[in-house]
Design brief:
Order of helices and strands: HHHHHHHHEEHHHHEEHHHHHHH
Structural class: mainly alpha
Strand order of the largest sheet: 1-2
Distance between the termini: 47 Å
Largest sheet: 2 strands, antiparallel
Helix content: 55-70%
Number of strands: 4
Number of helices: 19
């Protein structure tokens, strides 16, 4: 029976500590970065502004310009904070993306925010671009208002919502990224993107002017002024968005140390983050676990190997959370493929070979394996991922495959918030208020509007996209529309909304097992190798089956993703690589363990792929 851990104070909750760090990063963005950017921009505008004004007049305008630009920056920052998320929205095709991202309260809020920012920025640049003297023309003034109040904010809102630019993207190979480095690397993309949107608007605007004002052209100089104004607005909006991403995606390190190190009980605090229901907090906790597991500094793993305060539950809870995360993804992918088979026949994989696992009884582990570092890649034949078949030669001495939850530790209860409880002790604190919405919870009108939009979207989804509506009584079915316009990449993002979190989980298990064999060979981490291999084998089976599925076989593909792999295919390759690394590291020890037949078969396959 596990010893009861020392109860933790609420201030040691991972979510609370991480929330405080996010506040610090947010304040740094809203005060220092935004203010420096606006002051430099205002000074530059004063230098290049109309020379007919005296130096004193231009100097007096600088505080006004700083105020206008700074307010517009704050509008963007607050709106981004309100809709910050790290998981995919979960749209399986282009029609769902257009409908779900535009028919929502979020799109209305962003349109309003971008409209106000466009107006404030245009006021700042009016003197520099000579718009103050050009508005004497009634036609030009009308086109200018249309540009500032409608065209520019609408175009930016459309691209922001359709591409879901609220989502913070992370690379599972990096645990820390300085904001300055992120912004500097993004500067060419900011300029290129702003130029593309400016040119697109420049080509479309004459047609819009003709439809509204019956005027095709406002003159070469006037059209150039409008394009320069839109370019300046796009640059400002894009820079603030990039700066926000840079400060909110710094990583799991604070001043060079893991976030949990700010607590007196770092690993116990880290556990509260792994079990958190907040996606951003949970992801950051797994990111830190991966950092500890793969770090060259062994002292970061010592608290996991050697427990303190009689907290012998640390590794079991870490293992349970990792296996639960993997199992949730396996079930999600498997259930979708079953629902797909119920609606349209999934073609069998022609590359599947029944002779893949011949000579299963042959001694597998303890042999010298000639590993070709470049010989095992995603271009090689994939493990087919077919459902496991139970042995027909009597009862198996291995773990039964009928129970999909066999690896999950059920003796650790959870409370209503998802935190682990031991007896009467709650192991997670109350949620923090940092990432709660700001704008959409202020007025009753906004709440009512959002509820009506959600109700209308649910009814339309129920008719056109029934698989988007989850039901506990029956499996979701795929409609004809979904089957025709299905996108493998977007469907993968829907099934695994936190793909990077899952990648960090796989890397964490692999790193801890590989390092533990030398750093703590007789500890609990090494003894869990069988459980980890079994769960990874199931991941390889479920993810591999989806990776081998090609919807374009039955129809002309409407997906324009090119050759870029989907997130499940990437996770499949990562799972196989992790499985292989563990098998190679535990080559001799695995001969003395009782392993499931499917684990032995997969081990033989990956080793054969390495030897080729």
């Amino acid at each position: 029976m596990l010893d009861a851990p020392i109860p933790l104070s609420s201030r040691y909750s991972y979510h609370t500590i991480f929330g405080d760090i996010c506040k610090t990063r947010f304040n740094h963005l809203a005060t220092r970065m935004s203010l420096i950017f606006t002051v430099l921009q205002a000074v530059l505008l004063a230098v290049v502004s109309n020379r007919s004004s005296s130096n004193l007049e231009r100097a007096l305008k600088v505080p006004l310009w700083v105020f206008l630009l700074y307010v517009s920056s704050l509008f963007i920052v607050v709106a981004r904070k309100n809709y910050l998320h790290v998981q995919y929205r979960g749209y399986s095709n282009l029609l769902e993306v257009i409908f779900g991202q535009l028919v929502c309260m979020r799109a209305i809020v962003y349109e309003s925010v971008h409209l106000v920012c466009s107006f404030l920025i245009s006021l700042t640049y009016s003197d520099v671009l000579g718009l103050g003297t050009a508005v004497s023309s009634y036609t030009f003034s009308q086109c200018l208002l249309l540009y500032v109040w409608v065209l520019v904010p609408t175009l930016y809102t459309l691209q922001h919502c359709l591409f879901d630019l609220d989502r913070l993207s992370f690379n599972f190979e990096a645990h820390f990224q300085p904001p300055q480095q992120y912004i500097n690397a993004s500067l060419p993309r900011i300029i290129t993107k702003s130029a593309i949107m400016t040119l697109s608007l420049g080509f479309v605007s004459p047609l819009i002017f003709f439809l509204i004002y019956s005027c095709w052209w406002v003159g070469f100089v006037g059209h150039l002024q409008l394009m320069l104004l839109s370019f300046c607005i796009f640059i400002n909006l894009e820079f603030i968005n990039i700066a926000f991403n840079a400060h909110m995606s710094i990583g799991c390190l604070h001043k060079g140390k893991p976030i949990s190190s700010l607590s007196s009980t770092p690993i116990e605090t880290l556990l509260t983050g792994l079990s958190s229901k907040k996606p951003f907090t949970k992801f950051t906790a797994f990111q830190e676990l991966s950092f500890r597991a793969t770090s060259a500094d062994a002292s970061l793993r010592v608290p996991i190997y050697h427990t303190r305060y009689r907290n012998t539950h640390i590794w079991p809870v870490i293992l349970s959370e990792c296996l639960a995360t993997l199992q949730e993804t396996n079930e999600s992918v498997t259930n979708y493929l079953k629902s797909l088979e119920n609606s349209m026949k999934l073609q069998d994989n022609p590359n599947y070979s029944q002779t893949l696992y011949d000579n299963v009884d042959e001694k597998l582990f303890g042999n010298k394996v000639a590993v070709n570092p470049a010989g095992f890649s995603s271009s090689q034949s994939r493990f087919p991922g077919s459902p496991p078949v139970l042995s027909q030669n009597g009862p198996s001495r291995k773990i039964t495959l009928k129970d999909d939850n066999v690896l999950l530790r059920r003796n650790i209860p959870r409370d209503e918030r998802g935190g682990f409880t031991y007896g009467s002790k709650n192991f997670i604190s109350a949620p923090h208020a940092f990432d709660e919405p700001i704008i959409t919870q202020e007025t009753t009108l906004l709440k009512l509007t959002g509820a009506l939009l959600r109700a209308a979207r649910k009814q339309i989804n129920l008719f056109f996209f029934p698989s988007a509506i989850s039901s506990q009584d029956q499996q979701p079915q795929v409609s004809i529309i979904e089957a025709w316009c299905i996108s493998k990449r977007r469907q993968a993002e829907k099934l695994v909304p936190q793909a990077v979190c899952l990648a960090e989980c796989i890397i964490s298990l692999m790193g801890l097992l590989i390092n533990a064999i030398e750093e703590d060979p007789k500890g609990g981490v090494v003894s869990s190798v069988g459980e980890v291999l079994k769960c990874l084998e199931r991941s390889v089976g479920a993810l591999g089956r989806f990776a081998d599925w090609h919807p374009e076989v039955n129809r002309k593909s409407t997906d324009t993703d090119g050759e870029s792999p989907d997130v499940i295919s990437i996770l499949y390759d990562l799972s196989v690589s992790a499985f292989l690394e563990i098998v190679l590291k535990y080559n001799v020890l695995l001969n003395d363990l009782y392993l499931d037949d499917d684990v032995v078969k997969l081990s033989k396959w990956v080793l054969s792929q390495c030897s080729e």
